[in-house]
Amino acid sequence: MEQAVARLAPVLPVLTDLGRRFEAAGHELALVGGPVRDLFLDRTPSDLDFTTSASPDETEAILAEWGTATWDMGRDFGTIGARRRVDGEETIVEITTYRADAYDGVTRKPVVAFGDSLEDDLVRRDFTVNAMALRLPTLEFVDPYAGLRDLAEGVLRTPSPPEVSFGDDPLRMMRAVRFVAQLGLAPAPEVLAAMSDMAASIEIVSAERVRDELVKLLLAPRPRAGLELLTESGLAAYVIPELPALQLEIDEHHRHKDVYRHSLTVLDQAIALEGPADGPEESVPGPDLVLRLAALLHDIGKPATRRFEPGGGVSFHHHEVVGAKLTAKRLKALRFDKDTVKAVSRLVELHLRFHGYGDGAWTDSAVRRYVTDAGPLLQRLHRLTRSDSTTRNVRKAQRLSRSYDELEARIDRLLEQEELGKVRPELDGNEIAQVLGIAPGPVLGRAYKHLLAVRLDEGPIGKDAATERLLAWWAEQPESG
After folding, report:
1. FRET partner for 57 with CA separation of 20 to 30 A, picked from 130, 255, 369, 399?
2. Given the DSSP bridges, would you call strands 48-52 and 29-32 parallel, antiparallel or unpaired?
3. Of 94, 123, 148, the domain-final residue
4. Could you tell me which of 444, 416, 418 has the C-alpha nearest to residue 430?
5. For residues 390 and 301, what is the distance between their CA atoms, to the nearest angstrom?
6. Are 226 and 267 in contact (CB under 8 A)?
7. Transmembrane region positions (predicted)?
């Protein structure tokens, strides 16, 4: 315990000061939840969450004297926030009145009832590892539901029966999945059973809240463990049904690999290829949400495109195109932003493009198109493509790796020679209009695309040659007459 408290050293003056202020006003104050849990995980807490016997109005009055600014984070839910700046350093705190929430089980709208004691407040929290507290200013450790024991044993339990806890807020099931990925915990049998029995209730939670938990899961150190629980519990069938759908029935001749396990392995390998968090942009600093989503979803078009061919083969023709559409549809349903939807679905669409390079016979034109089609996603596409090799055939794996090494080297050479990242037609829109004597509009757009294709196919040819190509194209257009 002494070692854990020692990790509070950077924030101890704040804790002591606040604790004494609330005590002087006749109220209790405790540091609670994640910050306390993190002390025992050798982490210095970054967020400071408190609970108090004071009412929101009383809390606000105390914080107004302590801080330089206060704000209402949800007065009806008992939460007041405050900021304090001293000597250029800023501290932000959130303090919530003891709670005893109830939910209607239909709309997920909480009916707030303020509680009377710290122990009663702790029982309504999601998991025992988050139901530990330190009373302030004394630093007395409070752990009525054995959260420290569960943390030491690596077990995820709920302070109240899991059916009650998940019935109060079904999103807690998603939080369980996230904590498996973030903290390396395993759900207790009764927790897993309740998740399986109540999985369908996640549908009453807003897509935005579910998305936020899914993002935290994917950005965790061990997302695979969480995703396996998501699938095993049945939650994935309601959150991201394309994932369990990858568990294709393997035919008796084992003519194709387990796509579900393959996808999780691709995710693991993509994570291993991320750059350091503080690395340059071209290293794809991790954790990278776009890369991880693309790795997980790259094959979701396979179930819809699987065909057993004469002679015993199996095919998934155009699964990358189908998969890109399914990816966009799912991410939109989860309320992801447009840029993320576009980037992830584009990577899914492009993830097979390299396999046409297997014999190394691509022309410079094909390499240019590969780069321009990937655009700003090129470095992620490199990593996704490399991660997609999960074969146990060592020779095949080495051959694929060498082929991609060669492709990357060719790309680097062309990028250096031609600045492919900024490739444009050698005549701009105004010059095209002047050569053809046309006004801006759809015809000019077609002419621009034609010259872009010429640039990709032939590389830099100069403005005179580009003008010749443009005029030759124009002579074949109906509008030229």
Report:
1. 130
2. antiparallel
3. 148
4. 444
5. 18
6. no
7. none
How do residues 173-222 score in pLDDT, each as one tens digit? Answer: 999 999 999 999 999 999 999 999 999 999 999 999 999 999 999 999 99
Last residue of a domain, one of 99, 116, 148: 148
Residues 372 and 445 in one domain: no
Whether 383 and 291 have beta carbons less than 8 Å apart is answered as yes
Instruction: Output phi, psi for 458, to 5 deg.
Output: -115, -10
Hunting for tokens 């794809």 — which residue is that?
284
| CA 332 – CA 335 distance, rounded (Å) | 5
For the record, the structure tokens of 420 come out as 């492919």
Give the C-alpha distances (Å, rounded to integers) separating 27 from 81, 131, 137: 17, 20, 11
Of 230 and 99, the one with more pLDDT: 230
Same-domain check for residues 317 and 413 = yes
| Banded pLDDT at 481 (limits 50, 70, 90) | low
**Cβ-based neighbour number of residue 389 at 10 Å:** 18
> How far apart are alpha carbons 232 and 225 in whole angstroms?
10
Nearest to 71 by CA among 85, 92, 54: 92
- Comparing CA positions, the residue from 256, 387, 263 lying closest to residue 315 is 256
How far apart CA 334 and CA 240 sit, in angstroms, is: 9
Distance of CA 283 to the CA centre of its chain: 18
Same domain, 290 and 414: yes
Residue 362 belongs to some domain of the structure:
yes
* pLDDT tens digits, one per residue of 134-174: 999 999 999 999 999 999 999 999 999 999 999 989 999 99
Return the amino acid letter for 371. Answer: V
What is the per-residue pLDDT for 263?
95
